[in-house]
Amino acid sequence: MQFRVFQPFAGLVGLALMLFCAVPASAQLFETKASQAFMIDADTGTVLFSKDADKPIPPASMAKLMTMEVVFNALKAKRMTLDDTFVVSENAWRTGGAPSGTSTMFAKLKSAVRVEDLIQGVTVQAANDGCIVLAEGMAGSEANFAAQMTERARELGLSKSTFVNSTGLPADGQQTTVRELTMLALHIWRDYPDFFHYYGQPDFTWNKIAQRNRNPLLAMGISADGFVAGASQSAGFGIVGTVSHSGIRVIAALSGLANDRERSEEARKLLDWGSRSFQKTEIFAKDEVVGEAQVFGGAQSGVALKAKGPVDIFLPIANRDKLTAKIVYDGPVAAPVEEGQPVGELRVWIGDTLSQRTPLFAAEKVEVGTLPQRALDAAKELAVGWLRQKHL
């Protein structure tokens, strides 16, 4: 990969001039007690915060996000309906129901429960019995359903998430990461608008037992409206949450917190900071040239680059000098170059967090150069390429 830091064209605003002055990356703009944390802007997928985001962790009840994704996907594909019913088996009752001592919707043994009620039990009460009833009803056994969860995770590009059960209860080999939990939550919010509202439901009553939503963020007055908390002995307390404030929605996952109080407070602070501390800014309009890549053996020495559409970034309202940007490509690019050919990407950092990656394409066609031009480029590449390899 070749990194090219460029000065923008004169027509760009002063803010962009500051952005591309190659200020060195520095520490995070926010500190958290969480061992792992990851936060994105939901609209663009821009990474706003990252801390040890790819470390495998046991998911605990946060695994229920994947359980619900499989359920929502089946409903969207019309493979089942909200009015279908599944029977509460003895396994579901003992493992996740009243006798289990875990989070439950108190479903009665051998009763038939509507899918919509099971969904509410899981999304509001983190009901383990609800998860198992859905798993057995949809796949015949919880093990089969867990295999479907892992397969579906791979389809969604979640390469590290592996599931052994539908509940998140401790099991060897069950793992995920806060990055993948955040991306899964983003997918649920974006792809299942008809079902996302269940996560924000304040309470649910089943079997004459009323329980409030187990997501502690909902009652904090920060415009939180969804997702799930969890805890495990090995990974501590974790949560996946989302906040929508002033037209900006952020989604975050945290893990490795000491107790439920610390989990609530750290999640509140991170989400509130994320939703209030960034401003969406267009730095390049549609079809505007972003920069240039070096060309080898071409009729000209470089090719102009542009994105498919406008380039928007999320700027910190404070600490704007913490942003850096580079054009990254494998280079030099060999001629001929076709207009629209993928060449590289624009990478933007907020502090030391790689925040955004925007693909860049050739904005023009570059023909093969003359024999003298190609010979000169070959001589340059022989010298520069040797130095580059030696430097690496």
Structural topology:
Elements (H helix, E strand, L loop, with lengths): L1 E3 L9 H6 L16 E6 L5 E5 L12 H13 L8 E3 L2 H7 L15 E3 H11 L2 H12 L2 H14 L22 H14 L11 E4 L2 E4 L11 E9 L3 E10 L2 E10 L2 H17 L1 E7 L6 E6 L5 E5 L4 E6 L6 E7 L3 E2 L7 E9 L2 E10 L8 H21 L1
Parallel strand pairs: 12-16
Antiparallel strand pairs: 1-15, 2-3, 2-10, 4-5, 6-7, 8-9, 9-10, 11-14, 12-13, 13-18, 15-17, 17-18
Helix pairs in contact: 2-6, 2-7, 3-5, 4-5, 5-6
Describe the protein in words.
It is a single chain. By secondary structure, this protein is α+β, with helices and mostly antiparallel strands. It has helices at 14-19, 64-76, 90-96, 115-125, 128-139, 142-155, 178-191, 260-276, 371-391, and strands spanning 2-4, 36-41, 47-51, 85-87, 112-114, 203-206, 209-212, 224-232, 236-245, 248-257, 278-284, 291-296, 302-306, 311-316, 323-329, 333-334, 342-350, 353-362. The chain is elongated, with a radius of gyration of 25 Å. Strand 12 and strand 13 (302-306) form a beta hairpin. It has 9 helices and 18 strands. The strands form 5 sheets. A 7-stranded mixed sheet has the order 1-15-17-18-13-12-16. A 5-stranded antiparallel sheet has the order 3-2-10-9-8, with helices on both faces. A two-stranded antiparallel sheet has the order 4-5. Helix 3 runs antiparallel to helix 5, helix 4 packs antiparallel against helix 5 (128-139) and helix 5 (128-139) packs across helix 6 (142-155). It folds into 2 domains: 2-24 and 281-391, D-Ala-D-Ala carboxypeptidase, C-terminal domain (Peptidoglycan synthesis regulatory factor (PBP3), Domain 2, Sandwich), CATH 2.60.410; 36-276, DD-peptidase/beta-lactamase superfamily (Beta-lactamase). It is 29% helix and 28% strand.
